[in-house]
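Hi R.,

Here's the chain you asked about this morning:
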Amino acid sequence: MKKLYTFLVLTVSLTVLSVWTFRMNRSSVFRGGDASNMLDEFQAYGLSKETMIVVGIVKVIAALALLLGLRFKKLIAPAATVMAGFMVAAIYFHLSISDPVLPTAPSTLMLLSCITILILKRRIS
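And here is the predicted structure, written out as tokens:
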């Protein structure tokens, strides 16, 4: 269980950090709508550049808190909860513009991973 927990924490945090840093301005099959970068994707959902910036900052902080949580255990639950909330919102926005399964899948997998992290944390602690 401990290995799965660590794997999920690393996967969620590193994936989010990757998406919100060096892959932010790159095209991806996982982008919503016809977006070719993060700003286009947020605009496809009817969201502003300012919203994208705030979401990005909070997601990066949550991802870093998850990583630090491997050392400082008290950070895991709040970080995973915040990240799960963002993933629920991401799923909602994908569905709101009728995205197919492929662009919606990463958010769904990240949400399930965050829920699993929270469950495993309670069992491990």
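One quick note: The chain has a mean pLDDT of 97.

Cheers,
M.
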